[in-house]
Design goal:
The protein has 12 helices and 16 strands. It is an alpha/beta fold. It has 2 domains: about 160 residues, Aspartate Aminotransferase, domain 1 (Alpha-Beta Complex); about 240 residues, Aspartate Aminotransferase, domain 2 (3-Layer(aba) Sandwich), CATH 3.40.640.10. The strands form 4 sheets. Strands 2-9-8-7-6-3-4-5 form an 8-stranded mixed sheet, sandwiched between helices. β10 and β11 form a beta hairpin. The N terminus is likely disordered.
């Protein structure tokens, strides 16, 4: 009597087949990846970010990179830091090289509270802090804890590219909210909340980078901070405050954090990548105790615990080194490089080009003259030995073709001037190519109101007036 080989469904036509025969026919068109049909749905659409895609280009010595947001770590007292870490290992090796707590080293969590106090967060307890592998992991953990597939996340337009990658991996839907030169527009936030309610969408949280925004370079104004927190209370909205740049202001003391205004509605993400070292990969999440418990469980499931050695190194740095003075040194260095960028843009860029004027952080957000596409222009720029990040990487819907992010944190001022000179020539060449088809508009930099396809509120005046961004 004929039998059905194991794994073959009855009635599949496999009855009587040779016992060694494979129950599934070979595909007609073999794929390069034989496991393509087995991947989880959350991997669909994964792609390299616009920043990482440039790594092979910006590493070439002849290229001036205005792309990556790499801190100027050479400004650190490297001899002192090296000796500190050596003494740490030789004196506490049994602890620094061992497993640690999933929540993070208690001494480091105490010092993190001292750091946050500079931005008005004076009620934080070390028990509410979870140490992470950079604030990027913190954002991933928060998203894992709160977001189900199909949930809506509200985020500024444009938004930090690393956050968009996390949200995409969680299968969330991002709804962008317009910004201008004062940051996120409260009226646009309320409009988005109303639209989501009408559509029956479940909004899980607002994600915002309020200080020296990556990539836009703008800072959320004090009146808007109050307005946004009022909206959050009225709508029972959770806010994720991502703040890696908050201590790097050029012209004023750090602004009071959103978390300082509401300890239960705001989850705060911080990082030592911009104020000490990105290579140590130490960040943190400040969250209410109930949320903290879930974040610790998620951390233990993901990495067991954050690396002990780097935690001890940051804690020792904060204990023994003049870190506040070092931050001031960083801000003066970045101010000089910001000024070199803005002066070069004003002197060299053709009419119709506009940009933001950041008062801290790493980034300038530039809008090209009408008709130009930063992504399509990129090969010409690489050929001219200058690199930038096209704006489309900072929008979940792929818009932003007319924008680019310029980073001034890493190159020396003379390199920045040369990079802007090369970039201006590329823009002029692109304008020449389009002159037959387009009329160049000498208007202003404008925020894109998501979904409209049209410019919204004006951010900055004409390019030549005195007006006015990676990993976490």
């Amino acid at each position: 009597m004929a039998t059905t080989p194991p794994g073959s469904p009855a009635g599949s036509g496999q009855q009587g087949a040779h016992p060694g025969a494979h129950p599934h026919p070979a595909p007609r068109h073999p794929r390069l990846d034989p496991l393509a049909d087995r991947y989880a749905a959350r991997t669909h659409g994964m792609k390299t970010s616009e920043i990482r895609a440039l790594f092979s280009v910006v590493s070439r010595p002849e290229v001036v990179s205005l792309a990556g947001g790499m801190p100027a770590v050479t400004a650190l007292p490297l001899d002192a830091v090296g000796s500190m870490i050596g003494d740490l290992v030789s004196g506490m090796g049994a602890q620094t090289l061992q497993y640690g707590s999933g929540q993070g080293d208690p001494r480091l969590r105490e010092r993190i509270c001292d750091v946050m106090a500079l931005e008005g967060i004076t009620d934080a307890s070390p028990s509410e802090v979870v140490v992470t592998v950079g604030s990027q992991q913190g954002l991933d953990l928060v998203t894992r804890v709160f977001v189900d597939p199909g949930d809506v996340i509200l985020a500024e337009a444009p938004s930090y590219v690393g956050a968009l990658g996390v949200f995409q991996s969680a299968q969330a839907r991002v709804r962008h909210v317009a910004m201008d030169d004062d940051g996120l527009i409260p009226e646009a936030l309320e409009e988005a909340l109303v639209a989501c309610r009408v559509a029956g969408d479940r909004v899980k949280f607002l994600y915002t980078v309020p200080n020296f925004h990556n990539p836009a370079g703008v800072t959320l104004s004090e009146p808007r901070r109050e307005a946004i927190m009022a909206i959050a209370e009225r709508w029972d909205l959770l806010v994720i405050e991502d703040n890696p740049y908050g201590l790097l202001g050029f012209d004023r003391e750090p602004m009071r954090a959103l978390r300082a205004r509401d300890s239960q509605r705001v989850i705060y993400l911080g990082s030592f990548s911009k104020t000490f070292s990105p290579g140590l990969r130490v960040g943190w999440v400040l969250a209410p105790l109930a949320v903290r418990e879930k974040l610790v469980l998620a951390t233990e499931a993901q990495v067991l615990c954050p690396p002990s050695l780097t935690q001890y190194a940051v804690a020792r740095y904060l204990d023994t080194q003049p870190w506040r003075e070092q931050i001031k040194l960083f801000t003066e260095l970045y101010r000089e490089r910001r000024d070199a960028t803005l002066e070069s843009l004003a002197a060299l860029m053709p009419a119709g080009t506009t940009w933001t004027r950041p008062d801290g952080g790493f980034y300038v957000w530039l809008k090209l003259p009408a008709g130009l596409d930063a992504k399509l222009m990129q090969p010409r720029a690489v050929g001219a030995h200058v690199a930038y990040v096209p704006g489309i990487g900072f929008y979940a819907d792929g818009s932003g073709q007319e924008y680019m992010r310029l980073s001034y944190c890493y190159p020396e001022p003379d390199q920045i001037r040369e990079g802007v000179r090369r970039l201006s020539r590329v823009v002029e060449a692109e304008l020449d190519l389009h002159s037959t088809f387009d009329t160049v508009d000498t208007g202003t930099f404008r925020a894109i109101r998501p979904g409209s396809g049209h410019d919204a509120e004006s951010m900055v005046g004409p390019a030549n007036s005195d007006t006015y961004e990676d990993g976490r």
